[in-house]
Amino acid sequence: MSVLQRFEKRLEGLVEGAFAKVFKGVVHPVEILNAMQREAEAHKAILAGGRTLVPNRYVIDLSPYDHSRLAPYAAALAQELAQSQAEFIGEQSWTVYGDVIVEIERGDGLDTGMFRVTAEVYTGGDGAPQSYEQPPPPAYPPYDQQQGYAGPPGPPPQGGPGARGVRLMANDGRTYPLSIGSTVIGRGDQANLRLPDVGISRRHARLDFDGAQVVLTDLGSTNGTMVNGQRVSAVALNPGDMIQIGTTTLTFRVDG
Fold first, then answer.
1. In the chain, alpha helices (H)
2. 8 A C-beta contact, residue 81 and residue 102
3. What is the mean pLDDT of the segment spanning 216-243?
4. Whole-angstrom distance, CA of residue 168 vs CA of residue 174
5. pLDDT at 21 over 80
6. How far apart are CA 80 and CA 75, in angstroms?
7. Helix 29-42 / helix 3-14 crossing angle, nearest 10 deg
8. What whole-number distance in Å separates Cα of residue 206 and Cα of residue 138?
9. What average pLDDT does the segment 234-245 reach?
10. Largest CA distance in the chain
11. Is 119 in a helix, a strand, or coil?
12. Do the bridges between strand 230-232 and strand 205-209 make them parallel or antiparallel, or are there none, so unpaired?
């Protein structure tokens, strides 16, 4: 039985026989799951060792009508979507940063039957919403379809980035050390690393450092994020990589 078939079967139990009535005339959850799978495929990033990182947080914007119809089932539906997406990611042998999280929100301006899926790599930092069950662990545990999520990996190898200073160097000579956790780059009040550049969004990009790897994720910025001249959505950084946001260039450095 495929992931989609298992998902539909669980949905039938979720609404206690009212499946057809509840979802008649509104966006169907299977369509949402299909879109989430496409988003995961579109935002793959290759990590050290050949692992493939995909987003673990998915925000679903529904039209006002669909949102009101599905509101009684929103929390349970989000959990079922998260479980099915985790199964799909596991079948592809991809890696996620902690638990898969799904949030269902009202998307004003969307017509009935339309929806929007936003995907990102989420580490639990910066006061962002937590998982429905528990905060994701500070690691990149792979999802195993038989065993579930593996525990956090051991400490970073000797001489790896976790044992050295990790920092960004701006083109004006300023240096910004990175600590373990999440660092949001932008020009707004919510940014940890604020840059006075009109070409940078208020929340432009995020750096996630787990002690062994730094992953850069664009946060839906207006002008995009470039690494070594290529526009990226999420990518693992290597020493010497040049990050371009607005008119600012940041060089990723690992000391030692």
1. 3-14, 19-23, 29-42, 64-70, 74-91
2. yes
3. 91
4. 8
5. no
6. 9
7. 140
8. 15
9. 93
10. 64
11. strand
12. unpaired
SS3 content of the chain, % helix, strand, coil (to 5): 25, 30, 45
Task: Say how many CA atoms lie within 13 Å of 145 toward its Cβ.
Answer: 12
Query: Which residue is listed with tokens 């300023």?
Result: 174
Q: In this structure, what token pair is assigned to residue 134?
A: 């528990």
**How many Å apart are CA 227 and CA 237, to the nearest integer?**
9
Residue of 212, 135, 218, 219 lying closest to 227 (CA atoms): 218
Name the token pair of 161.
């980035």
Contact between 138 and 155 (Cβ < 8 Å): no
The first and second tokens of residue 71, run together, are 């509101």
Which two three-digit tokens encode residue 83?
């479980």
Q: Is 59 within 8 Å of 66 (Cβ atoms)?
A: no
Instruction: State mean pLDDT over 224-228.
Output: 93
Residue with tokens 């949905």: 11
pLDDT of amino acid 70: 82
Q: d(Cα 208, Cα 13) in Å, to the nearest integer?
A: 38
Q: Which of 28, 34, 86 is nearest to 57 (CA)?
A: 86
- Look up the pTM and report it: 0.50
* Average of per-residue pLDDT across 89-118: 87
Is the distance from CB of 97 to CB of 122 less than 8 angstroms? Answer: yes
Separation of alpha carbons 177 and 24, rounded Å: 53
